Amino acid sequence: MASTRLPGKPLADICGLPMIVQVALRARDADVGRIVVAVDHQEVFEAITAAGFEAVMTRVDHQSGSDRIHEALLKSDPENKAKIVINVQGDLPTIEPETIRAALRPLQNPAVDIATLTVEIDDEAEKTNPNVVKVVGSPISDSRLRALYFTRATAPYGSGPLYHHIGLYAYRRTALDKFVSLSPSPLEKRESLEQLRALEAGMRIDVEIVKSVPLGVDTPADLEKARRLLATKL
């Protein structure tokens, strides 16, 4: 709600519904389990529950999305039934349900702690843009990498594909518990990328390669684009 570029953005209207409700609908269409929306404002809580979804009120001072979903998990599932949690950010109203499902696939390997997504970069400008986070990973298959590093720099060096990280995560519950117990790590603070905390702690992150980057709504221009995209789909 406190977004500086788009104040109140969770409640921004997209095709007649608040953006946060549109995201919840995409999560429902993914059909992978219970949906809980972690919120920190009463207005957002009321919008979610009015649309028939479950909401959990969390603190306003969390430093990261991982901390917020961990609090929501403890409140909504005190009996420890959920073993995997997918964190879908609330500003992805046009995300494809298949993209959400894709985040689960790397966790079929019991050695993987956290799963996330990436797409091959085809725009030359993105390769040197520090706002585009790159995955440096070792190929496991045609559709998956084992993450070795995440960086804002252009990496790895040399010929070959570069990959744009998509910040949607699927955590084993045990991995999320461990992650939020760790202090911010040196590389995390240097790159401003919290996933490096997990890698520095020896946790394994595998990355599923998908076809497109979902639109994140951060500005009024993004909001207009999301409205056009969703209107076309509807």
Q: How is this structure best described in words?
A:
The protein is an alpha+beta fold and 234 residues long. It has a domain of 118 residues: Spore Coat Polysaccharide Biosynthesis Protein SpsA, Chain A (Alpha-Beta Complex), CATH 3.90.550. It is 33% helix and 23% strand. The chain contains 9 helices and 10 strands. A hairpin with a 2-residue loop joins strand 7 and strand 8. The longest helix has 14 residues.
Structure summary:
The chain is of the alpha+beta class. Helices cover 33% and strands 23% of the residues. It starts with 12 loop residues before the first strand and ends with a helix.
What is the secondary structure topology, with strand pairs?
Layout: E1 13-14, E2 17-18, H1 19-30, E3 36-39, H2 42-50, E4 54-57, H3 65-76, E5 84-87, H4 97-102, E6 114-120, H5 124-127, E7 134-141, E8 144-151, E9 163-172, H6 173-181, H7 186-191, H8 195-200, E10 205-209, H9 220-233
Parallel strand pairs: 3-4, 6-10
Antiparallel strand pairs: 1-2, 5-9, 6-9, 7-8, 7-9, 8-10
